[in-house]
Amino acid sequence: SIVDALPRIQAKFPQVKCRFVGADFLQGEIQAYVREKRLENTVIFTGFRTDIPEILALFDIFVLPSLWEGMPTALLEAMAMQKPVVAAEVGGIPEIIEADRTGLLIPPQDPNTLADAVIFLLSNPEVAAKMGQTGYERVHQYFSIESVVARTEAVYDQLIEQKAKNYKD
After folding, report:
1. End-to-end alpha-carbon separation of the chain, Å?
2. Which bin fits 27, alpha (ψ -120 to 50), beta or left (φ > 0)?
3. pTM of the full structure
4. Rounded CA separation 64/86 (Å)
C-alpha cells in the first residue's frame, strides 16, 4: 500500500504528503493503520469531495495502487489534469496507461516498487511533466466524449455500409 511505501519515499523526500480522497469504505481501517505506522503528519484524509479539479491541482503525482479497478474515472481525471500517474497493473488500468509514456505501471501489493516509482518521478520532474503532458493527450485522443462518439459513429457507418453491401449482393 501507499502507506507502506511512504517511509521509503520520505527518506528521499521528507516533505512528501499523501492525500486520500474519497469515501471511507473501510470504516477507519486505513486511518488506524496510518496511526500504527506513525504517519499522521504525512497522510491527509479528505473524505468525499466534489471539487476534484481543485484537489488534483494540489498533486505532484497521482497514485492509484488498487487491487482491482474497472475503468477508473479518477485516473482519467488525473491524466486530464496533466498529472503523472503511478498505478497498479490491474483491471482496465493497462488499457488507459501506456507504460513509461503516460505513467508508470506497478505490480499490485508491492510497496517497494511503488516507492521506487514515486521517487523516480519526484527525482525527475522533466520526465514527470512529459508523462503528464502525454497522458493529457492520450485522454483527449481516446477517452474524451468527442473521441468516443466519433469512434461509435465510425462503427455504425461501417455496419450500415456492410449491411448495404450484403443487401446488394
Report:
1. 60
2. left
3. 0.79
4. 6
User: In Å, how far are 63, 71, 117, 161 from 165, measured between CA atoms?
Assistant: 49, 36, 52, 6
CB distance 40 to 34 below 8 Å: yes
Helices and strands in the chain, H and E counts: 8, 5
| Mean pLDDT confidence for 7-12 | 95
Amino acid (one-letter) located at 123: S
d(CA 25, CA 123): 33
Q: Give the per-residue SS3 of 120-152.
A: HHHHCHHHHHHHHHHHHHHHHHHHCHHHHHHHH
- 25 pLDDT above the threshold of 90: no
39 C-beta neighbours (distance < 10 Å), count: 16
